[in-house]
Specification:
Chains A, B, C, D: Keywords: Oxidoreductase. The structure is a homotetramer of 336-residue chains. Chain A is of the alpha/beta class and 336 residues long. The first copy, chain A, contains 13 helices and 15 strands. In chain A, strands 12-11-7-10-9-8-15 form a 7-stranded mixed beta sheet. In chain A, α1 links the parallel β1 and β2.
Chain lengths: 336, 336, 336, 336
């Protein structure tokens, strides 16, 4: 029985704890740690059958019975805890991003070099049934050579401005998933990026130094072209779509809905909106990514999303930021 | 240049006149006749370049220059005019139904026996792009052996009760098209029919001795099963769909819409309603059926919808009427 | 903590055990019983944390710690075990059907009369997200008064003929779900039924005295009309759809698919097939129905699907059987 | 009766002649002119009832009976013939583009200044039922303020390289329609453009100095962002879609198909491909644009697509060309 420790008992930490407990055979959550450990969280941990709930995550790192650590703490602590966990010989599943600072990510990659530790980054969309189906169509040659990749990614509503101030901005907290999807879908690297954007949702976002709406174009290493469009607010729900177009045809994926019900009346023919909430939308993907990581650890397989895969989208995001600031295309090689 | 005379200058007569004038090369409408010939109709005929507008249709039958007659008059006159036109050696395109009286239809069929006259019945749906695509899928074996045929046929709104009183009832004025579609889609004959129905739209229809909502099941000569559902009122438009299910799969056709626009907002994801009006929905089919008839005349081909094809749906309709009245399955062989 | 005993360790028994263990807080499976208890099943039970695995279900009924019994054994044992469980004061969740014999079902209903036992029948589709959305649209008045209810229900492939011989036939093992859906969707009772059918999939099914393809029409107590079409084989998957049409419009539900991927190429625009396997299709519904039952027990609520709800579809199924045999409409009041 | 002369008897000239003859009441084509006037074209003109077929278009300009001239000749003659027709006092419908040379377009605009001549440019998509529905949704406020406009525009196959050599390149012969659509949909002006592209379809296109695949982003005067993706080859047909996303929601339009047929089998659920051929796809739009122009002439209304509307997309196209060449965003104000 693989023993798991979870660092960070916020929303995503709890999601992982519950999905491991329910779905992952041969693994159990032994401990959870959070600097702001509430009575409520303790009660929840107890109900979930988690043996230990700590305030200090070092107790998890120090526990020789624990094989795997999930880092679900705030972003600014990811790289430091990663380094400590690697030093302690724990396998690490780290929520994205590893850091916004390229040097800190590189330090994690360096630490992994001579280590036997498995390290996976939490790009959950790679495990989503829709994105996987699109990737499979591209990979298996069903659309021929990829020519154009289009990603639509719009949140149902903007996060609090307080979050935006520390998030690294739209390209590093939101588009980062889409940058990962560009790499995942295309099997190629982004070489150059150009971004345009605006403050069209909430002026407070602009005052915080960020934009809320963007279109980013990219040139890929395989000659294909890619484009992402983002917005912090879509009235109809969480809008996550991909279109991959190639020499033999196109694969497109749409959103999931709560039901297939369609109502026809004098107003029109109305289907359900996309699922609104990312946890609901990607619940199965959260289970699948952690299951895959545990499988990689147990059976000594390669992880699905490496620390390098964690670095690349940050580089692209920083290039996009620079592109927006300087209104010119920016090569990824200019960054880091 | 084929010369055409149109008997009946109501809605459908005018539709045919306009579509021949616009689309059918090598044919022209020389004359139109209507017992209630208005100044407006005369002006319309003149604008259309129709040389003659008569009150008495016998003038059309007597004109040796006219090759083809389109019978677009009221239903109760179809069989009589058919007989006269056949006797006059005119090729006849007759709007459906030939008559509600089986004997009168048989008289037309008998008159055709030793004649060289081409005779086609106006079951326009056989020429509709959607129905043709479904038929082609069935005929070409794409769904294997037909097992279940389902037809949904709902009008946007009920006709005036005055019409219902003389129409022969729902099975003879509305379902008759669907009975034809059962034969067209299946390539088989209806052997037995069972009908249930109700007055769910308008009590006045019930007072007029008819129903406004029905489900009719049928056993076909090839062993397949069929079902039609009808209603005189669909708030969302003219609803005309078919599903043909067989040993290898299914083909389904839906409705046409004015555009492909889909609006997503807080209320849902809303597409356009089906086209509301049968003339708009089937405009291309009206052109195609008359073109096909002219082609059959000019090139001495078999007509697409024979007088026998005009008889069969009337037999099925009368059997459905009897089934509803007696609440039991009725064999077609019991009728006529 | 509610203690549950499961009688029958076949496919569905295991499904319930796993879903309770994973998803139902405040309840646990204490014991499972199966007359053919294999080592494999024992190992599975052990891995699931089920304390006891018996050959004889009476040990479950005799255990005072057990509050709830799930009857997942073969159909012919349902009513007998129900009676014993009720006598033992256990709350009962019984897989459908309670029995094929109306008198035996009535005996269960009678036994419940003076008992405080909760009894729910396993019509899982009532808990499916799509069917619930359609029901909600009807119930909330979104389509006005119900006029026509259409259910398509086709299995991906026929069960073994050995099963068909004991299943009670297509109307009692397959259509029974659809009969329940007619009542659920309409909120009305079936008063009269007429069935046509054929052996179009496999002659062996005919030799076993059953049909494999059917259309059943029904008159409902609220004046609405209903129709079900069934087939034992749909090459494209498990096809479960409903269309409810009324005075204000229509609600329609389609199938679930593994992903939303659509591939466009020279062949056409191709989406995924419906989910193939009923367990996968209805997994969430299995969880929801048992959760609802446990909630009814714990909080003394009315059960969602009563023993009477278990009786009614059997009556309709027997009427359909009689209708097919005698080729005439049969009133439900003629049965039982 | 308005008399029309058509200059250029190629494909599009004939399309206009036929649609006017069939559908436009109160107008007739009196003459057609083409420097390469074949016997076949003469026979066609005769069959269409066109009185005159000339080799020299000056005969049309000299005919005082002719009110309207349609310029359907090769692109390099558009501006010169426009100037002559304006001088002759003819109302002009000119196929797009007026010219590739900004100065020549400006000369036409200047010539119109003190003239009473109506001048419309042939941007047919503005009259397409789908594009109009999307425009209407935006204009009427159904999606709130426009934030992101996405246009997908892919041809079924590349034109001959000989055409590409004289066409002005992808941005001026293909994307020009999409640039017009950006203005039409948004009701705003393009201020800055950035283009990336590649030769992914046919190396011969690259050798001719052009690209065959492109993504173009734009900043609009109302603050919205726009993106177009183009490819010269889509195996599944002529792919013309728009997505307009705003503060209240989104409107999206898809392609038209030959039928609504959907075939479900073991391979998947397959719908028809988009219509393949632009003439078929936009036939109604060709009729509508000429009808609108004739209406503008007869009733002295403003034309739907002015000479200025003809100039703007050329400016954007030239900016896109410069952007691609210099790999930097280019302001429209830098051009012309």
């Amino acid at each position: 029985m693989i023993q798991i420790g979870i660092i960070g008992a916020g929303r995503i930490g709890k999601v992982h704890a519950e999905s491991i407990t329910r779905f992952v055979k041969g693994a159990e959550v032994k401990a959870i740690a959070d600097p702001y450990l509430t009575e409520e969280t303790k009660a929840w941990a107890n109900a979930m059958g988690i043996a230990e709930a700590y305030g200090d995550y070092h107790k998890i790192l120090a526990d020789p019975a624990i094989d795997i650590v999930l880092i679900c703490s705030s972003t600014d602590t990811h790289s430091q805890i990663s380094l400590e966990a690697i030093a302690a010989g724990k396998h690490v599943f780290c929520e994205k991003p590893i850091d916004h600072d390229v040097e800190k990510i590189k330090a994690v990659i360096a630490a992994l070099k001579d280590s036997k530790v498995k390290y996976q980054v939490g790009f959950n969309r790679r495990f989503d049934h829709n994105f996987m189906a699109a990737r499979e169509a591209v990979k298996s040659g069903k659309i021929g050579d990829l020519n154009i990749l289009k990603i639509t990614s719009r949140d149902p509503g903007a996060p609090p401005v307080s979050y935006i101030k520390v998030s690294g901005g739209i390209f590093l907290d939101m588009t980062i998933h889409d940058f990962d999807m560009v790499r995942f879908m295309s099997g190629a690297e982004v070489e150059e990026v150009y971004a345009i954007g605006g403050v069209l949702v909430d002026p407070a976002i602009g005052e915080a130094g960020d934009i809320d709406t963007a279109i980013i174009t990219m040139k890929l290493s395989n000659g294909a072209l890619a484009v992402i469009d983002n917005c912090r607010r879509a009235t109809y729900g969480y809008d996550q779509r991909v279109e991959a177009f190639g020499s033999l045809g196109q694969v497109a994926i749409g959103n999931d809905t709560d039901s297939t019900a369609v109502i026809s009346n004098g107003e029109g023919v109305t289907a359900e909106k996309p699922k609104l909430f990312f946890l609901e939308r990607y619940m199965q993907a959260y289970v699948a990514e952690v299951s895959a990581f545990i499988d990689a650890v147990v059976n000594d397989k390669e992880v699905a999303v490496s620390a390098e895969d964690g670095l690349k989208p940050v580089l692209i995001g920083l290039a996009a930021k620079k592109s927006l600031a300087e209104n010119r295309p920016v090569k990824i090689s200019e960054i880091g």
